[in-house]
Amino acid sequence: MLADFFLNSVPRRIWEPLRDLPFGEMAERAPQLSSDTIHLLEGFMGVEEYVGDYVRNGLEALRAASERRRLFLQWGAEEGRHGAALQQVLLHTGARTQQQIDDYGTQLAERRWGPEQHRGMDSAFGALVYATFQERATYTNYVELRRRVRSEYGLPDHATPVEAERGYERGVSEALQRIALDEVAHHAVFLKLLRIHLAHFPELTLAKIAEVLEGFAMPALRLIPSRRHFVASVLRTQLYGEAKHEVRVVTPTLKQLGIAEAPTPDA
Questions:
Q1: Residue 39 belongs to domain spanning
Q2: Domain presence at residue 132
Q3: pLDDT tens-digit map of 47-105
Q4: Which end of the chain has a smaller Cβ tally under 10 Å, C or N?
Q5: What DSSP letter does each residue of the chain carry, written as one string?
Q6: How many domains does the chain have?
Q7: pTM of the entire structure?
């Protein structure tokens, strides 16, 4: 099952944030981006930059599972390029200087993320359940942010014929499109693993899903230095909220698992 991820999914999505993004267009179209969009980009960069903490905790929990450890290392490498890509976006749009990004990183390093900050993440299994829903949520966030950027650029939601012909999207839209594709690929592989658990341990799996969903929250949100600006921008733009969480994340994931509705905590 993991072979398909390594042999097919990974090779299709190889990219390097320092090389494969249209930096010139980011600079050219920078004046079209709103302050809310910049705060959103910065906030997501901050959340992504805790990838070291996510990987450290995950590898410790998977010490005896070599195949899962390899998957997690690959996941971490791919997630690591997301923060790097968003740094490049902020730099090439002129929204932040290198010194500002360095200072932001210093503040990030002063706090650590841990699984105890999330309900249900008390084991490798709990982390798998959380990751399955979180990757879908992150994918949704980047899809919505890409749509917002394209609107501010005066572009339609879908790639234009010119973009399709040349093979990449305009400016910041390309970075967000690449990140979103990574996130949905991660959701897919975690979903496959969760299906296996559900097939063999249905009661345990349903109970853990209920526990995780009851206290679900974005990782490291409380830790990022720009939290207040980020949350305010999320609310103003309606980028994400309870309704979207249910419709775009919880419901489709449960359907993919073959579950009609969210289980209750005492399932």
A1: 2-257
A2: yes
A3: 999 999 999 998 888 888 889 999 999 999 999 999 999 999 999 999 999 999 999 99
A4: N
A5: -HHHIIIIIHHHT---TTTSS-HHHHHHTGGGS-HHHHHHHHHHHHHHTTHHHHHHHHHHHTTT-HHHHHHHHHHHHHHHHHHHHHHHHHHHTTSS-HHHHHHHHHHHHTS---GGGSTT-SSHHHHHHHHHHHHHHHHHHHHHHHHHHHHHHT--SSPPHHHHHHTS-SHHHHHHHHHHHHHHHHHHHHHHHHHHHHHH-HHHHHHHHHHHHHT---TTTTTSTTHHHHHHHHHHHT-S-HHHIIIIIIHHHHHHHT-SSPPPTT-
A6: 1
A7: 0.96
With a cut of 60, say whether residue 232 has pLDDT above it: yes
Q: 61 and 128 in contact (C-beta within 8 Å)?
A: no
Write out pLDDT tens, residues 93-132.
999 999 999 999 999 999 999 999 999 999 999 999 999 9
The C-alpha atoms of residue 240 and residue 257 are separated, in whole angstroms, by 23
**What CATH number is given to the structural domain containing 11?**
1.10.620.20
Angle at 122 between CA 261 and CA 82, to 5 degrees: 80
